[in-house]
Design goal:
Layout: H1 8-41, H2 50-96, H3 104-116, H4 119-146, H5 148-157, H6 160-195, H7 197-202, H8 206-259, H9 264-305, E1 323-330, E2 340-347, E3 352-356, H10 363-370, E4 378-383, E5 386-387, H11 393-397, E6 400-403, H12 414-418, H13 427-436, H14 457-471, E7 475-479, H15 487-501, E8 505-510, E9 521-526, E10 529-534
Parallel strand pairs: 3-8, 3-9, 6-7, 7-8
Antiparallel strand pairs: 1-2, 1-4, 4-5, 9-10
């Protein structure tokens, strides 16, 4: 509800319309009772019952119209909330950055299916929950004026329905939690299979992975069927309770009609209202099961929305100065040991620094700190005299060009992808960047396909370099830019990096010290600790 504030006017309107519809139900029952009493009991002519019949028809039409308008308003509430929530979720993903998310698979399942699953919660369950509390009260207040005995029966039996709903809901909660976890696991695993389908085919492991997908799918099916079984059990119990309660009301009314202590018109009117007293609560039970997946998905949604954000910083970074790591320790919540442990070094302006070390040594963590995706757990990173954490993050990143090991290539043209480096780059600047990156033979208007399937791995790396050229930023960060490429492509990218390094500060992450030959300074990390700083071995 905190994130759904935009829907409050719609929800209030929905509940108000539902209460008016309940009043129409009361008018409908009393008018029909009056008609039946006048025509079949008192022997009056139909013309004498014209007024009550007209009242009955108007009440039926009013109830139908109010119910239709309430459904439309409730759906608008759901659409408003889910649209706002999707925007907030996407904005949060962009703000927290890649270093603090649990992977692309769960996030993709959440933003696609999870947020859509909240539609039944806001459109049906939440309004019905309010109506389940208000509508029986409206009817019982009216019944008290007619027959206090029936009102007492209602007051005793109505609370039994939510009591059993709570008991059954406990089982549903556990089942739905397991079902949502199974769905997230299935989505994430299937995404991995799709991304690695070439590797699986080459190594003959596709069948094994498909068996695992089949196993997870079967687990998801079992959890889904288990949830449905409980939902059907819930419907049976609620219907049975409502039927027994209505029967109790009917018995008390029948006995008093025989004794002559209750008028037929009032007795018939109350008997027709009895099912309407229990109907809103039964619908709460039905809508609860429809909305439970959305409630479970909300836990994943709010797990991301509640991630604490780093302070954005207020100091504007106008130029690049010396970058100094001062006794920096970095710990990730999901890891036992520190990724960096009391690391200190300095990157001087205009120099080329290579960060080397084996896998897990902390190289990527250094880059994440420089890009302000994470903050030190202790110590600080300083740029000149300013703490990096105090600099405006967006302004600081304008000073950075980033060349990852596997640049993301988006669906669109080569030109569009290069302009991710700087959106305002002219066609001439884009073509010059392509030339400097060694892609002058590639058509700038070529459609590269989704995830760049129509360009080679080497061309994707060079597109990353072209973005850096068009970015023209004073600080260049490169992560293994020549890894897993043939020697000719490595030399071409190395030459392009040499051009990029002119008049810039360069930090390159490399796996082996031999690849750091072009650097001025080599920073060697192992297990998160600084081993040595020195000149490269040539």
């Amino acid at each position: 509800m905190r994130y759904g504030r935009v829907s409050r006017p719609y929800l209030i309107s929905t509940v108000a319309l539902g209460v008016l519809a309940a009043a129409a139900v009361v008018a409908q029952a009393l008018a029909l009772a009056k008609v039946v009493t006048a025509v079949f009991l008192d022997g009056a002519d139909l013309s004498a019952a014209t007024g009550p019949m007209l009242s009955f028809a108007l009440a039926v039409l009013a109830r139908a119209a109010l119910t239709w308008i309430r459904s439309a308003v409730a759906q608008q509430a759901a659409t408003t909330v889910t649209s706002a929530l999707r925007k907030q979720f996407a904005a949060k993903l962009l703000r927290v950055g890649p270093a603090r998310l649990g992977g692309a698979g769960p996030a993709a399942i959440t933003i696609e299916q999870g947020i859509d699953a909240l539609d039944p919660f806001f459109a049906r369950y939440l309004p019905q929950l309010a109506l389940g509390a208000l509508v029986p009260l409206v009817i019982v207040v009216w019944v008290v004026r007619l027959d206090w005995v029936s009102a007492v029966v209602f007051l005793v039996t109505v609370p039994l329905i939510p009591l059993f709903m709570v008991l059954i809901g406990t089982l549903v909660d556990r089942r739905t939690s397991r079902r949502w976890v199974a769905l997230q696991k299935l989505g994430g695993y299937f995404l991995d299979v799709l991304e690695g389908i070439a590797t699986l085919k080459v190594f003959g492991r596709a069948g094994e992975r498909l068996s695992t997908v089949r196993s997870i799918s079967e687990r998801y099916r079992e959890e889904t069927m288990g949830t449905l079984r409980i939902a059907f059990l819930s419907a049976l119990v609620l219907e049975l309770l409502a039927a027994i309660s209505t029967a109790l009301v009917a018995v008390t009314i029948g006995l008093r009609l025989l004794a002559g202590t209750l008028g037929f018109e009032f007795g018939l009117g109350i008997l027709m209202l009895a099912p309407e007293v229990y109907l809103p609560l039964r619908r709460v039970g039905t809508e609860f099961h429809a909305a439970k997946e959305g409630i479970e998905a909300a836990r994943s949604i709010f797990g991301v929305l509640d991630i604490p954000e780093m302070p954005p910083g207020t100091v504007r970074a106008h130029h690049l100065a010396a970058i100094r790591f001062d006794n920096v320790t970095l710990k990730y919540p999901e890891r036992d040991g520190p990724a960096l442990d009391r690391v200190s070094f300095t990157i001087e302006p205009g120099t080329r620094s290579a960060i080397v070390g084996s896998s897990g040594s902390g190289k990527t963590s250094v880059v994440s700190l420089l890009m302000r995706f994470v903050e030190p757990s202790s110590g600080c990173v300083r740029v000149g005299s300013s703490d990096l954490g105090e600099l405006d993050a967006d302004e600081w990143r304008k000073l950075i060009a980033w060349v990852p090991q596997d640049p993301t290539v988006f669906a669109g043209t080569v030109r569009d992808n290069v302009r991710f480096g700087r959106s305002g780059a002219s066609d001439a600047e884009v073509e010059e960047a392509l030339r400097l990156a060694g892609l002058d033979g590639l058509d700038p208007d070529l459609e590269v396909g989704e995830r760049g399937v129509l360009v080679s791995a080497g061309q994707r790396r060079r597109l990353g370099l072209a973005r850096a050229f068009v970015r023209d930023a004073p600080l260049l960060l490169a992560d293994e830019p020549t890894a897993n490429l043939d020697s000719d492509t490595q030399e071409g990218i190395r030459a392009s990096l040499g051009l990029l390094a002119e008049r810039r500060t360069v930090v390159t992450v490399v796996h082996r010290p031999i690849l750091a030959a072009d650097a001025d300074v080599v920073i060697h990390l192992e297990a998160g600790r600084l081993v040595e700083i020195g000149r490269p071995r040539r």
